[in-house]
Design brief:
With 326 residues, the protein is of the alpha/beta class. It is built from 13 helices and nine strands.
Length: 326
């Protein structure tokens, strides 16, 4: 009798395990970006991963890979197609390799300020471009936009006008949109992977680079550059993108949970960046860095004359719609 009860109990436990097993099997997802662990993009990506796990009752676990640990920005974009990553944070200029019109936001001096970028993220034109990218990339889905900051130049050679940039070797990301300003001003745009920029500045491979103030701080570029020139030429933003294969695997309810937490994370990171951006000019000056304001319209006019929308595979109608957002 005792043996029969034991056998029945074991069988019942095995059956329960077989039924419950798939329901509690955890799926691990990879989320990649190129930013430091100290930056808001990482902090809030980790938060989003934890929230997604919590809101799906532990069904999914997201591991966030920061600081180019899964490859440089072009690599992680390609990873969405190859299935080596599930989620990335990236600049639109890299995603635009699948859908060139998406890079329109990188044409210099498109945005007035951070609020203009945020309005763009909620606009019809952004939704249309995101949908175009989704179709062109085989289902990769843009779910959120995070303000990255106004991009400014740092340089050991001081310049305050476009003409004074002539011959300057300026590091830019490896995407065409970033070359517009240096090309218009006669500088030599030099693509170098993000993780290698500090060393390139330190050893003189390049003379200058351009990034938002919070990134200049996080990457410590100010340690190897004498001047910060407030060109503000691109009000930059980052996209959160889920791979098409990931979205296909999630139920509609899970898709909504993931998008919700990603949008919450983007909003929180945006607030952090805006706050830090407003503090850094004074902090850099206190460190002895020469921070210089310039006539931005002078730079803008040079770009408009020298760099056509067609040469960058952009549609001027998209640009006009963004510029006219109120």
């Amino acid at each position: 009798m005792s043996q029969r009860l034991t056998v029945k109990l074991i069988a019942a436990c095995a059956l329960a395990a077989a039924v419950a097993g798939p329901a509690f099997a955890q799926t691990k997802l990879k989320w990649a970006h190129v930013y430091e662990t100290s930056e808001p993009y990482h902090k809030w990506s980790v938060w989003a991963g934890e929230e997604f796990k919590k809101r799906t009752n532990g069904k999914y676990e997201i591991q966030v890979f920061p600081a180019s640990s899964l490859g440089k920005e072009s690599d992680i974009n390609q990873g969405l197609q190859l299935g080596t990553v599930d989620i990335i944070i990236t600049g639109a200029s890299f995603a635009a390799r699948s859908f060139p019109r998406l890079a329109v936001s990188y044409y210099p001096f498109t945005f007035r300020d951070a609020d203009h970028v945020i309005k763009y993220s909620k606009s019809d034109v952004f939704r249309e471009l995101a949908e175009g990218y989704k179709k062109a990339s085989g289902g990769n889905t843009i779910t959120a936009l995070t303000y990255y900051g106004a991009r400014h130049a740092t340089s050991n050679k001081l310049f305050t006008t476009c003409e004074q940039m002539k011959g300057l070797k300026m590091r830019v990301p490896d995407a065409p949109a970033y070359t517009a300003l240096p090309r218009a001003c006669g500088a030599n745009p030099t693509p170098i992977a993000f993780a290698e920029v500090y060393l390139a500045l330190q050893n003189g491979t390049v003379d200058a680079q351009e990034n938002p103030l919070p990134t200049i701080e996080a990457k410590k570029f100010y340690e190897v550059q004498k001047n910060i020139i407030l060109t503000g030429h691109i009000a930059d933003a980052l996209l959160t993108i889920n791979s098409g294969s990931l979205m296909a695997r999630l139920t509609p309810a899970e898709q909504k949970i993931l998008v919700d937490v990603q949008q919450e994370a983007a909003e929180r990171a945006t607030r952090d960046i805006q706050k830090r951006e407003g503090e850094l000019v004074d902090e850099f000056k206190k460190k002895g860095i020469n921070v210089v304001a310039v006539n931005r319209d002078d730079f803008r006019q040079h770009v408009l004359k020298a760099i056509t929308f067609e040469s960058m595979q952009l549609d001027k109608k998209d640009y006009d719609r963004i510029v006219n957002l109120k």
